[in-house]
Amino acid sequence: MFTSITGRPFRLSAGARPRRITTILAILASSVLAWAAAVPAASAAVIPVPGAGADYGPVPAAPMSPVRVITAGGMPGWQITLIALAAALAAATAAVVLDRARAGRRAASTG
């Protein structure tokens, strides 16, 4: 993958390894999100299987009956908790990665 003029193998710097891992994780996360967005759209159409001797096509409408729709606004508490937990975890991870990168640069410049 990498070649060197001196013949010694190429080594990643201390800062390149976390960046590479972060890039790989970002690619994986975005591909999972894209897959999760595409699955409901792909399975939205339900094709009914006709009975014996019936043709494919729309199903005859059933007699109308009154339907009471009850809706409540807002987001469930468990979703709010999950979002807050994910945000805190992401912030803590970013803080640790940045702190280690800064400490590595400080140690490299003084030595």
Keywords:
2 helices; mainly alpha; 111 residues
Explain what this protein looks like in three dimensions.
This protein is mainly alpha-helical. The longest helix is centred in the last third of the chain and has 34 residues, at 77-110. The chain has two helices and no strands. The chain has a domain at 79-105. The two termini are 30 Å apart. 55% of the residues lie in helices and 0% in strands.
Q: Could you estimate the helical fraction of the residues in percent?
A: 40-55%
Class by SSE composition = mainly alpha
Name the overall outline: elongated
Strand content: under 5%
Secondary-structure element series: HH
Distance between the termini: 30 Å
Report on the biggest sheet. none
Number of helices: 2
In terms of per-residue confidence, which ranges show pLDDT below 50 for 5 or more consecutive residues?
Answer: none
How large, in whole angstroms, is the Cα Rg? 27 Å
Mean pLDDT reading: 78
How is the topology of this model organized?
Elements: H1 16-42, H2 77-110
Structure in a nutshell:
With 111 residues, the chain is mainly alpha-helical. Helix content is 55%, strand content 0%.
